[in-house]
Specification:
The protein has about 325 residues and is mainly alpha-helical. It folds into 2 domains: about 40 residues; about 200 residues, no CATH class. The protein contains 13 helices and no strands.
Length: about 325
């Protein structure tokens, strides 16, 4: 009878010891946690600063995200409304200013008109006497304002040079050699750029090209005698070259007009224009009598240097027009 209580007591002691063994690590962990110092106190100063910066970055990202959400919902509508209102306000203001300016302009032909001043009166009253040109407009742009015309011719030359620099495919250039070689090695290159044998176009161009070029020459040479001049005559001659190239191809036109031809013609024309007007500016500014006579008004060899300047401008415009056409069409002259 005594063995049963002993067995029961032994079982109770075993369970108690097992429970104590399981709770011991938990108690030790709790005690260690209570005795452990704060994490921020144990971390180095650099690590604490890094954690703090990361926390601030997260807060800034949250604020930016909220701003983006607000902008997508409401900000876009508000900014679009403000932009539209400003556009309407600016347009209405400009329209009102233009209308006010037009309403206050002097009537056409009135004596108080700004164009009726001493400058225009000098052109009309003494233009023939001082320039020898029957065409007052030509006398004005190639004598009184020849420096402006030199600038316009230089602008045309510069524009043509820029187009050549940007679009020209030169096989001998280090920059464009690969592209030019790829284009020229294409078996369909020549057939694509050169015109096909169009009998109607070629016969028409064969008849019209000489007439167009002769008309341009006439307009250039008679610019000081009748309506025309270097700009209009050069445009006509340039159209003649474009017509010829469109009908017979660039191979045919290269027999007499190449890139070197373009360079020489334009360079000689600009230099002749500049030197001619330098002489005129020098003699006029110093009160020196010019040895170049004005000639008889109405004669082809008259008006001093205006005929020479017209020819120079005509050459520049002709070459520039054809250069634009050739470079845009094929990438080379």
């Amino acid at each position: 009878m005594k063995k049963k209580p002993d067995l029961l007591n032994t079982a109770r002691r075993g369970v108690s010891n097992w429970l104590n063994q399981e709770e011991a690590p938990l108690e030790r962990g709790m005690l260690a946690a209570q005795q452990r110092p704060d994490m921020e106190e144990c971390l180095p100063a650099d690590e604490t600063a890094r954690l703090r910066m990361e926390e601030e970055a997260r807060e800034e990202e949250e604020i930016a995200q909220r701003l983006r959400e607000w902008n997508e919902k409401k900000g876009t509508r508000i900014s679009s409304g403000i932009y539209g209102a400003l556009c309407v306000l600016i347009c209405v203001t400009m329209i009102c200013l233009f209308l006010y300016t037009v309403m206050n302009l002097p009537s056409f032909g009135s004596a108080q008109h700004p164009i009726n001043n001493e400058v225009s009166a000098r052109y009309i009253e003494k233009g023939l006497q001082e320039t020898g040109a029957v065409n007052i407009v030509t006398g004005m742009i190639l004598d009184y304002r020849a420096f402006d015309t030199l600038g316009e011719s230089t602008v045309l030359f510069t524009a043509a040079m820029v187009v050549l620099f940007l679009l020209r495919l030169d096989a001998h250039s280090d920059r464009y050699s690969d592209l030019a070689r790829a284009v020229r090695e294409n078996p369909h290159h020549e057939s694509y750029y050169e015109p096909r044998s169009d009998a109607i176009l070629q016969k028409t161009a064969f008849v019209l090209t000489p007439i167009v070029i002769l008309l341009g020459i006439y307009v250039v040479l008679n610019g000081h005698l009748s309506p025309g001049g270097g700009f209009s005559g050069g445009a006509i001659m340039g159209a003649g070259l474009v017509l010829y190239a469109s009908a017979f191809g660039s191979r045919s036109i290269r027999r007499f007009f190449t890139y070197k031809t373009y360079q020489r013609i334009v360079l000689c024309a600009l230099m002749t224009y500049a030197l001619s007007k330098c002489y005129s500016f020098y003699t006029g500014a110093n009160g020196i009598h010019s040895i170049i006579p004005l000639g008889t008004p109405g004669a082809i060899l008259s008006s001093g240097l205006i005929l020479v300047l017209n020819i120079c401008v005509g050459f520049i415009v002709t070459c520039t027009m054809y250069a634009f056409y050739a470079v845009f069409r094929k990438g080379e002259l």
